[in-house]
Batch of 2 targets.
Target 1
Amino acid sequence: MKYPKLRELKEAIRALITGPCTINFPKIPRPAPANFRGAPRFDPDGCVACGACVQVCPANDLTLIDDVKERKRRIVLDISGCIFCGQCEACCTTGTGIKLTTEYDLATLDRTKSLEEVEKELLICDGCGAIITTVDHVRWIAERLGEKAYANPTLMLCALKDLSLIDEDRPPPAKGYSRADRIRILCPRCRREVTLVEDYA
Ligand code: SF4
Ligand code: SF4
C-alpha cells in the first residue's frame, strides 16, 4: 500500500508543476482525426432529394416528406439519432449529396438544432398527378445520359425547362390520352398508356 500512495503523491506534485494531463475541452476545441466519422451534413447543391439515403439509414434517422400541393420534397436529418455508420454517404446517388464530417461536439439542449434538411421541387405526372421524383433528380439523370436523354420525353422536357421552352401551364389531357400527349411529363404508368393507346387500341 505504501508504494501506490507514493506514486499518487509523485503524480500530484508533477501535475502541480506541469499542469493536468487532460485537455481543457470544450473550452479549447480538439480537432478529430481526418478519418473520424462525425455528423453527416447535406450539400444542397449535390443532393437531388432522390431518397436513397432514407432507405438505407439503419437508424431511421432520415425522413422523406412530400408535399404534393406545394410541389416540395424535404429530406430531414436528425443528427441526435445518428449512429455515424456512413451508409448515407456510401449509398448517395450523386456521391456528393451527404458527407460525414469530423464534427463530434454535438450536444445541445435545443433538439431543433440537431435537425438539418434539404428541400427540392417535386416532379408531378401531368396525367395522373403521381409523384415521379424531384426535378433535380431527373435533371441529374439527363445530364449523365447526355444526348440519350432525348429518347425519353420526361427527361428531355426537364432538361429543356432550364431554357424556358416548356409551357408550364399546359392543361392535363381532357379525356383519355392521344398521340400528342407523348410529349409530356408523365409517370411510367401514364407513359405506357399513352404509348399503347394508339399503337394497340
Ligand atoms: S450516418 Fe448512418 S445513421 Fe447517420 S444518417 Fe447516415 S445512414 Fe443514418
Ligand atoms: S442525392 Fe444523396 S443525399 Fe440526396 S437524397 Fe439522394 S441519396 Fe440522399
Note: The helical segments are 2-18, 52-56, 87-91, 135-145, 153-161, 188-199.
Target 2
Amino acid sequence: MDEKIREFIYSHKDEIVKDLAELVAIPSVKDEPERGAPFGAEAKRALLKAEEYCQKMGFATSVIGDAVLCADYGQDPELGILAHLDVVPALEDSWNTDPFTLTEKNGVLFGRGAVDDKGPALAALWAMNAVKSLGIPLKKGVRLILGTDEENGSKDLELYKEHAKFPPKVFTPDGSFPVINIEKGMLGVRFSGNTGGNYMEFRGGVTPNAVADKAKAIMRRVTADKVKAAIPEESEAKFTVTERGDNVFISCDGRAAHASTPEKGVNAVTALLSLMNRVTDEPGLRGIEKLFPFGETDGASLGLKCSDESGALTCVLSTLAIMPSGECEGTVDIRFPTCVDLQTVKDKVCSALESHKLKYEIVLGNEPHVVPEDSEFVKQLLSVYERVEGEKGACIAIGGGTYVHNIEGGVAFGAERHNTDVVEPSPKPDTDAGQPSDGSGDTDYHMHGANEFITVEELLKDAVLFAHAIIEVCG
Ligand SMILES: [Zn+2]
C-alpha cells in the first residue's frame, strides 16, 4: 500500500504542480470586503478555484461564510486538515522571479504561497484524492478545511465556528514537521506616557511582533562628539551620529528577528535608548530603559523571567516613538511558556508599567496552546512521520502561534522541514535576511519574504505523508 500511494502521487506530479501554479497566479492578498467576498475578491477567487479541484476529484464541498471551503470524504469526519489560501503581499523588490508566476528552477518552485500555504493545501487535497482513487477503505471521514484569512487574524475560522464544528482531530500543515504540540501564550501591550523631555525625538520599529532593526533619534543640548564617545566599544548595534546646527542625529542599525526568537536579533530600539541615556538625564527615558534594557530578552526586568520544557519567556520592546513634547508610545510583545498563565503575566507587566507612570492597553492576549505529547493523535502523526520520512519524529514547542492556536486538540504537522538536507536554493545572497518569519528552524523557506519556495520533492512527499496520516487516523 505504501508503494501504491507513492506511485499515485508521483505519477501525478505534473498535475499537482500545474494546480499549484494556477493557485499561485491568484494574488489572494487580503483586500477590502466585497459582496460575497469578506476578505476581498482575490481570496474568494482562490477559494472557488480550489473548490473546482475538489469537485473534479469527486469530493462533496461546501463554502462557509464565503470564507472557508470544506471538502469531505466519508461521513462523520474524524480528521480535519486545516490550511489556508490567502497570502501575504509580495512587495519586496528582491524577488528574482515574478512572485505570482510559479517558477521552477532545478526542482525548486518559487512563488508567493508556495510553502505558505497553497502548496501544503494542495498536498492535502491530493492526499485525499490518492486515498479515494486507490479505494483504500476508511472507517471514518476526513474533511479538508481551506480558509482565506489566516494571515490577518483568522477571522475566517470565527465564521466557520458559527456554522460548523471542527472534527475531533485537526492538524494544520502551516507550521513545521514533525509535530508542533505546544505554542506559547502571547501578550501584546501598547503603552503611552510622557518622558518629561522636550528636546528630543525618537522613532524605532514598525512591526509589533518583530525585533526592530532600525531606530532614529534627534537630540539637542548635546554634541555629536559627546554622543560618539558614549557608544559602547563592543556593541552589536551600529550607530551613525551627525550634527547639524543644534541637532544631533543618531541612527541605529540592529538586526531584525521575529518576536518569538528575539535572541536572534539585535534590538535597535533598546540599543539607541541606552545610548541616549548615557548622554542625557531624563527620568522618563531612564524608566523605559529600566524595564527594557538592551540585550535582555527574557523579561527579567519586568519580573517575568521563567522557563520550562516549552522554552523561555521572551519579551521584546518592539516599537517606540517619542515626540518633541515628550509624549511617548510603545509596543511590547511577550511570549510565555506553559508554566505561567495569561493573567499572571498581564498583572506583572501592567504593574511594572504603572510604577513608571505609563498607561497601557492590552492589544492581544492568548493562553498557551498545549496538546499532550502522549495523546493518541500526536502519537499517530509521529508514527506516520517516522515511517514515511525514515527518521525519528519528536514534538516541538514554538513561540509563534499557528492556525490551530484556538482549536482544541489541534497541532501543526508540516510543512516546513528543519535540520534536513534541503539546500537553500537562493541564487543570490539572501537579500531578505532579517525579514521576520514565522518559522523557528534552520531551513529558511523565505516564508513572508522574497523568493518563497517549496521543492517539488517536498510537495509530493507532503502529499504522501498526509495520505498516510488520513489512513492512520481514519482507517
Ligand atoms: Zn501560513
Note: The chain has two domains: 2-184+370-474, 185-366.
